[in-house]
Specification:
Two copies of one chain form a homodimer. Chain A has a seven-stranded mixed beta sheet with strand order 2-8-7-6-5-3-4, sandwiched between helices. By secondary structure, chain A is an alpha/beta fold. In chain A, helix 2 (49-66) runs antiparallel to helix 3 (70-89) and helix 7 packs parallel to helix 8. The first copy, chain A, has 15 helices and twelve strands. Chain A folds into three domains: 28-94, no CATH class; 100-123 and 363-457, Aspartate Aminotransferase, domain 1, CATH 3.90.1150; 144-359, Type I PLP-dependent aspartate aminotransferase-like (Major domain) (Aspartate Aminotransferase, domain 2, 3-Layer(aba) Sandwich), CATH 3.40.640.
Chain lengths: 458, 458
């Protein structure tokens, strides 16, 4: 009874402090609304990174004084910031954004409506997938290989990958596409309010995954002028106690850049100093034209997650199979997400991947290099500036004005689908990405139309 | 300049009120810790639904006075409650929990180590998948049907599903297993702090998906005594402004229960009154033995998400393909999650699903009914109480004591894998789930071992 009395007194205090919190939060929303009105009158952007950073630092300092866990404090703050933003943004229109995937869907729709289309927008090699897959698929059916498998993938496939990439099989998870490896790594290792550093131009998926989990994406912008080498000083400045991960993607989509080893060394040293994960998306690793690509695993940093895929290497995009490699503790986290979301990759698909590995990817890389060279030579003729790709499947030229969406729309009408630069970062509205996943003849036709539209607009 | 001044003054106030919030939240955590200590000394449970309900009502009244949206206030409160609970639970041991999937992995490992195992733990029909799939797979390879598809699935498959389920194809999304339809519905429609109502015993995935997105799961516990019919009064009591969704799963896993239409009517009317989504997991719809199963779509409630799968109907578990049906606005939300996580289901798998639909599922249902009848008759001999299943693939008998995990472990040693009742809800430690996905002969052997272990323990 005495104890109950004790609990009741404490509960009364809980109620009273809870009421204070609610009232203060509402006060905060009211202030946010007022600021929003002023911003709207003055035409100022809702989001202000600098102000956010200040308040984040302030919260970290107050919470540390009060003895609150910093990640919980930042999570709380994030919820407040989100609500403030949505209060401020209520009356505003969102900026138009279009990714290569959006254009792909649009182009597919136009094709369905009878229009002929040259697809230079998606990174989908047109090569045939390895022929051994045909046998594997029919064997899988005969042998009833269509049951639930271990969530991380069938042992045989994990062993083959382990051998190929010189790691132990407990470091591997087989995923439905490299995309799900990226997704499961980001959503399992980041919490709401955490931050992710991305080097732009970048595949939009990293930010999308961060948004999904309520984490914030901080951006280092690389530029053609710097030959797409990121400014590492800027990278260091961006890092805060909320930062959890740096994302690398080399050979890069969309620029084709491969960083030198000493640059990677520096990035790893920054990551080490700040205890950050490094997510290295290496789905284009095989497409390295001028030098051998040195994967992140070779650098031996233990908070690395390497993502790879069968999509580009073996032209198996539509089989949706990829994998992640990391230390077992990380794989365990990623595996939890996979168990909740999909149970496992389809068993026949896993055997198809195994068959592909046995057979190899033939001349795919050689052919891709010839195509990239062809695209580069035509872009030179058009006098569009670009950096010659070290690898991957794309060229990312600059166009005369900040009008990527207009150009892409005009070209869609002409029957050529291109990826707008802004899909890889807001500041690349004066770039487009040309994918070389078509035979030279088709590429030639597409580039001719691009040239004519650019002439017409200049 | 003047305006900037105005913004700066407001921002200063934002900072100050934010600091107040953080300090108050920490004060609240400190109080929770003290209450937790007293509870721990007295052996009182951490969670107290009545106290929670009181504080929820208080928050609603304070927020309404302050002009805050009630759903945001409750979201905030739920985040505070969660953190308090985790603070209070820190010093306590978590109850051991083991799901059917965990047992499956354990059994697989024991098999790999050379042990013979009868699998009565997973819901994986042993029937052969439709033979038309063999042709479809080899055709897909020949026709290079292995590219990115529309995220929602290939039009042909969506059209076939639309025809089957009498809906328009813009209401369909093809997913990697029914599981991903559940996942994408829950994570796209619920926010952190929202609530989900689940009727237990239940497939653990619903709660896992809610946990994943930071939503809370409220539970209505059905019991064998009530013939697994949920108490709808209790359901109504659980609903608060934070509630977003009710999950139904009939024919039920694990009990095999099918609710009467008038019960569904009442649940829908509760959902309507409270503007709730109803997620209806109908992956066992075809396995209805005594009556035609009336799917939720037939009830015409527009906030329904129906989930189905090829896994159980066509014995295609390892192909990982299922689908969701809902109004286009909801499908759009689910599609966003799918685009971020996986791009699309593998194209050859989608064609395999189409081939399966063309062929049909033959005698699967008839055979399953015979097996369920067999299991039931053997359980009667053992004098284990159960409700005869109306459908699905399982029987969920009660065992003499609350010792499901001990029984399951003992049976694993004997070479029989069973699903523990507690995997479907904490209070079902005196149940086990027997899956009838084996030929009668195998079932007989497994049940004999179960009988002998139960004798040995009584």
């Amino acid at each position: 009874m005495e104890r109950d009395q004790e609990i009741n007194v404490l509960r009364e205090q809980v109620r009273s402090v809870t009421a204070d919190i609610i009232r203060d939060v509402q006060k905060r929303m009211e202030l946010a609304r007022q600021i929003g009105e002023i911003k709207s009158r003055k035409g100022i952007e809702v989001k202000d990174e600098k102000v956010e950073q200040e308040i984040r630092n302030m919260v970290l300092s107050v919470s540390s004084q009060a003895g609150m866990k910093p990640d919980f404090a930042l999570r709380l703050l994030n919820i407040l910031l989100e609500e403030s933003e949505s209060v401020q943004a209520e009356s505003r229109q969102k900026p138009q954004r279009q990714t290569h995937l959006g254009i792909f869907m649009k182009a597919k729709q136009m094709e369905a409506d009878g229009k002929e289309m040259i697809h230079l927008e998606v990174g989908e090699p047109d090569f045939p997938a390895p022929s051994a897959i045909a046998t594997s698929l029919s064997e899988s059916f005969k042998l009833k290989r269509y049951h639930y498998t271990e969530t991380r993938g069938i042992p045989k496939l994990r062993e083959a990958i382990a051998k190929r990439d010189s790691v132990t099989e407990d470091r591997i998870i087989v995923t439905p596409g490299g995309r799900f490896a990226v997704f499961s790594a980001i959503v399992s290792l980041l919490k709401p309010g955490n931050e992710l550093v991305v080097i732009e131009p970048a595949w939009p998926a990293y930010k999308e995954c961060a948004d999904f989990v309520g984490a914030r994406t901080r951006v280092v912008k690389a530029s053609l002028e710097d030959n797409w080498v990121p400014d590492l000083k800027r990278l260091e400045e961006l890092i805060s106690p909320a930062t959890q991960m740096i994302v690398l993607n080399y050979p890069n989509n969309p620029t084709g850049k491969i960083l030198e080893s000493k640059t990677i060394d520096k990035i790893i040293s920054i990551a080490k100093d700040n205890h950050l994960y490094v997510l290295s998306d290496e789905v284009y690793a095989d497409y390295a034209f001028e030098m051998r690509f040195q994967g992140l695993l070779e650098f031996g940093y233990d908070k690395t997650i390497m993502v790879s895929s069968f999509s580009k290497r073996y032209a198996m995009t539509g089989f949706r199979v990829g994998y992640g490699i990391a230390k077992p503790e990380i794989i365990k986290q990623m595996n939890k997400v996979q168990a909740v979301g999909i149970t496992s990759v389809a068993e026949p698909i896993q055997y198809a991947a195994l068959a592909a590995m046995d057979q190899g990817h033939g001349d795919n890389v050689k052919i891709m290099k010839e195509r990239i060279d062809f695209v580069c030579s035509r872009l030179k003729d058009m006098a569009l500036p670009f950096a010659k790709p070290d690898g991957a499947l794309y060229v990312f030229p600059r166009i005369a004005r900040h009008e990527d969406l207009e150009l892409v729309d005009r070209l869609l009408e002409k029957g050529v689908a291109l990826a707008p630069g802004s899909g890889f970062g807001d500041s690349y509205t004066n770039h487009v990405r040309i994918s070389a996943c078509q035979p030279v003849e088709t590429l030639g036709k597409g580039l001719e139309k691009i040239a004519s539209v650019i002439r017409e607009r200049s």
